[in-house]
# Entry
Amino acid sequence: MFKKSNIDEKNVNKQMKTSMDLKEFMLLNAKEQEEKISTAFNEMFGEEVKKDKRNIEKVMNICFDTKDTDIYLSNGLKVEKKGNNLNFSFKKSNSTTLLYVLFILSFIFMGGAATYAGILYRDMQNLNIDLDSDGIADLNLDLDGDRKCDINCDDNKDSKPDYNIDYRGNRRNIFNQINKNNRLFNRINRDIDDDKKCDINCDTNDDGWPDLNIDFDGDGTIDLDKDTNDDGLKDMNIDTNGDGVCDLNCDEDGDDKCDKKCIGFTPNTNGGGVSSGNGGIEFEAAIMIINFESEEAVYADNIYPDDQPAGENINTVIPPIKFTIENTSNQTLYYDLNWIIQENTFESNNFQYKVESDNNGYTKDWITAPFETKTFAEHIAIAPNTKQSYTVTLKLHGIGAEQNYDQGRKFRGNIEVKPEEIEFYAQDNN
# Structure
C-alpha cells in the first residue's frame, strides 16, 4: 500500500502517466522486475513512496496475464496492460460524485435529521476501508453491521491496525486483543529478552500486521512462520495459505528440526530466482536446491522456422532454459516439472521443445509446446547427494513449405520445478 501522508496533490500532478515495454520487462530477472515496477511507482508520485509487496505482486500478475486487463491500486493509481505495454495513470477525480452526495446530505440536514445522518455518513466513511484497492476491506471491519469496528481497528488514523488484528486476512481476532482489564493480549512486536529486537509477532514491513514468528494462540510461544537463524526469513512451521496450520517444514517436538512435510530450498546466486512451486519461500538449510542458470521464462515473438536461412531480420534461435536440481539429503527425493503458460498464440503444432538431462533426470525428444499450463513430467526421482542438470530447447519447426499461419505468433511461459511432499519420521532425525 502507499503511505498517504507522503503523497500530496502537487506531487501527483507532476506525472499523470508512465509506461513500460513488456517485452523488455520479460527479459529481466525477478529482482530487476520488482525494481522496474517500484521505479514506475516513484515516477507517478514524484517522490520515494512506501511500496507494499502486495501491490508489486498485483502488477506482476497483470504482466503475466494473457489478456488486456487493468486494476486500481491505492490513491487512484490505475495499472493497465494493453498489448505489449503496461501503463500507469491516475483515474479521474470523484469530486463530482462527492459534491452530489454532499448536495443530497444538505437536504437531509434541512429536513431535521442532521445529527443522525451526519454521524451515519461519518461512520460509513471510517469503516471497512480498502487500503490496497483490491475490492476487499482491510481496516476497521464491521462484521455485525452495528457501525462499530470489530477487526483491524485503527485508533489513531494512521492506516495501520491498533487492536483486534487478524492474521493474513482471516477475519479472526488474533493479535492485540483487548481483554477484560482493557489491556492488550498477544501483542505484536514483542521483545521478550530485552535486546531491542522483536521476538514474537514481528511486523517486518511496518504495515501493522505481523509477518514473522507468529504466536497464533497467544500462549507466548511461536507457532508459525518461525525464523530459526535470525535472518528475517521463515524457516520452520511455514503456513502457506493463512489458515493457521503448518504446511511446510513442520517441527512437531519443538527442537527446531523438521519432522513432517520437510521441503527446503535455497536461492541461486545469479539473480535468476527460485522456482519452488509454493510461493518462492527460501530456506537456509536446504534439502533440494533448484538453481536456474538461465532465465526461468521464455518469450518467443516473431520467430522464423528453423529451416530458414539466417539473416539480419530473420531470427530462428530461442535461448534455452538451463537449470540444475540438487538433492543434498541422504534419501531419494521426487519432483514434478510443469509448464506455466502465459501465452501461446501459435496456430499449428510446430512450435516445439525438447528436454535433455543427466543423472537419470527426465529426457524428452521434440514435442509440441503446450497451449496451457500443464505438468509434463511427474514423480521424477533424484538420488541422495546428486545433482541433475537440465536444458530445455525450443524452436519453430520448419516443414519445408510456407508457414504463414505461424507468422508473428507468440509464446510466453516458464518452467516450474515442484518438489513432492516428504514425510520425515523420528528415526530420520537421529
Observations:
- The longest helix spans residues 95-126.
- Confidence is low (pLDDT under 50) at residues 1-15, 92-122, 265-286, 423-430.
- The helical segments are 9-14, 22-26, 30-45, 53-63, 95-126.
- The two ends are 46 Å apart (CA to CA).
